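Appendix C: a fully annotated inverse folding record. The material below is reproduced so that readers can follow the format used throughout the book. The structure is listed first as tokens, followed by the designed sequence.
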């Protein structure tokens, strides 16, 4: 697959630009919305409703920014899936197909979090605080409890890199290990249905902060590796570096 047929400048923009845009807009938006750090499930419903009603316009704007930023996850995933397809080098790229499906599912559940948060913040003092609390918590469950979709995709990225027969590999091996570590870091999110406070609550160190930080690191790291890979292939096209070719089995 010819890199220049894929437009290197566009690939760099969609990889690094999408990653940085998502991380910055998501963090900034959630901070504006009063969701970073998140009010936990142990907060009384009345207090949560008052929290969401305070500076309501600012909070809703922050959630909007967060939702726009998360849309960039789709463009970022598209570039990663393309690279996975290049790694497979076969007629039946099952890992690339699985990646495309998981990415589509991931965008949907990722966007569901802000969608539900803005509904909770829409009229927090006009309806029962318990209803507001239920909608708010549903947003966090959509945001975190969908962890298997993301973990499986991270593992598939690692598998694709380990199976890559190009020399050098299109993405370095350390990216595979980082993807595995990130996938494993999502495991504590499986426990948010059992805890209303502490390490494994949806605002806890294990269930929220660990996967959240790991995800941000992975996005920027993979994008950096992608940009380096694109630069290397541009040099290869100019004949200054040995071309990466698949090794026959």
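Designed amino acids, in order:
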């Amino acid at each position: 697959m010819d890199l220049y047929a894929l437009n290197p400048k566009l690939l760099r923009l969609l990889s690094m630009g999408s990653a940085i845009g998502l991380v910055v807009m998501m963090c900034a938006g959630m901070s504006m919305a009063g969701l970073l750090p998140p009010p936990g499930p142990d907060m009384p419903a009345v207090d949560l409703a008052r929290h969401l009603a305070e500076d309501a316009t600012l909070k809703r704007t922050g959630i909007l920014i967060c939702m726009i930023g998360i849309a960039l996850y789709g463009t970022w995933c598209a570039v990663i899936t393309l690279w996975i397809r290049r790694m497979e080098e076969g007629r039946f790229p099952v890992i690339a197909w699985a990646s495309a499906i998981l990415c589509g599912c991931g965008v949907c559940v990722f966007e569901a979090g802000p969608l539900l948060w803005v509904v909770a913040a829409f009229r927090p003092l006009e309806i029962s605080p318990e209803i507001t609390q239920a909608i708010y918590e549903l947003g966090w469950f959509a945001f975190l409890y969908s962890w298997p979709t993301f973990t499986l995709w991270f593992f598939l990225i690692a598998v694709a890199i380990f199976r890559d027969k190009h020399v050098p590999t299109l993405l370095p091996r350390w990216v595979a290990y980082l993807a595995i570590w990130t996938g494993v870091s999502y495991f504590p999110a499986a426990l948010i249905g059992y805890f209303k406070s502490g390490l494994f609550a949806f605002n806890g160190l294990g269930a929220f902060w660990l996967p959240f930080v790991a995800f941000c690191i992975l996005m920027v790291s993979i994008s950096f590796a992608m940009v380096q890979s694109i630069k290397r292939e541009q040099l290869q096209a100019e004949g200054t570096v040995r071309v990466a070719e698949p090794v026959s089995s």
